[in-house]
Amino acid sequence: MSSQGTSSDEKLILSERDGRAVVITLNRPDKLNAINEAMATQLMAALDAAEADRDVLAIILQGNEKAFCAGADLSGFSDATEDRYDNYRARYNQRKTRAVYRYLHNYTKPVISAVEGFCLGGGLELALFGDFIVAGEGAQFALPEARHSLIPGAGGTQNLPRRIGPALAKELMWTARRLSAADAKEIRLVNHVVPKGEALAKAKAIVGEMEASGPLAIMMIKQAVNRGTEMPLALGFYQESDLAQLLAFSEDRQEGVKAFAEKRKPKFKGQ
Questions:
Q1: What is the CATH classification number for the domain harbouring 177?
Q2: Residue 2 domain-assigned?
């Protein structure tokens, strides 16, 4: 099994603080931001740093005007007969191009995907592991793997049906149909469509609205919703109650209630 070679000095991920948001930019424009091992490693490092920073409320993930992400770049991996079982094992823990999706699945802070241009294959799967998508008018979405006798292998067959329903998800994957931003909005694949080039600005505006909310409450809401979709309704109610009760022990909960009584803006600390 061979791996992809990239200079350790090459910045394949750009991370910039913007108010309470961290904007993470996929930076392989010559490859339509296709994810290789080095990019996935750098992406997880940037996400890890933001997760640990209490002042960071949310992540905005973006590409560039031409492509959010065209999928996984597996060109550096061999698939010789003698390597196939090693590749089978590697995809769980060794391959960072797979681990990054699991990392996002367990991420506690909101992740907004600001999509311009192509969002295809593993790129759409990456966006689906975020919490929601904001799209510029020129964005295009597809899971085209079946055209190559493949299936989406980074969560697409699971996340897309949960987002838009199984019947429509199967049709889109079977036909490899490419959707415009407007089409994606119609089927609720994306939350917002804005003029081309303005997806990042819209995502920042949404984070700005979220700043009035307690960061611990935002975290618990994400946990309740994400876990609850995998549970029977009754268990979801119990989990919601437990997570709500956990907040009762936080300073932020006390501050929120006190600020409401005093008719002022709360000063949350994330603790």
A1: 3.90.226.10
A2: no
What average pLDDT score do residues 110-117 get?
98
Pair (131, 184) in one structural domain: yes
Give the pLDDT confidence score for residue 2 in this predicted structure: 37
Average pLDDT taken over every residue of the chain: 90
Using one digit for the tens of pLDDT, what is the confidence trace for 65-82? 999 998 888 665 556 677
> Which domain covers residue 67, as residue numbers?
13-210
pTM recorded for the entire structure = 0.87
Query: Any idea which residues carry the catalytic annotation?
Result: 125, 145
For 75-96, what is the mean pLDDT? 69
Are residues 220 and 204 part of one domain? no
Are 74 and 191 found together in one domain? yes
What is the 3-class SS of the chain, one letter each residue? CCCCCCCCCCCCEEEEEECCEEEEEECCHHHCCCECHHHHHHHHHHHHHHHCCCCCCEEEEECCCCEEECCECCCCCCCCHHHHHHHHHHHHHCCHHHHHHHHHHCCCCCEEEEECCEEECHHHHHHHHCCEEEEECCCEEECCHHHHCCCCCCCHHHHHHHHHCHHHHHHHHHHCCCEEHHHHHHCCCCCEEECCCCHHHHHHHHHHHHCCCCHHHHHHHHHHHHHHCCCCHHHHHHHHHHHHHHHCCCHHHHHHHHHHHCCCCCCCCCC
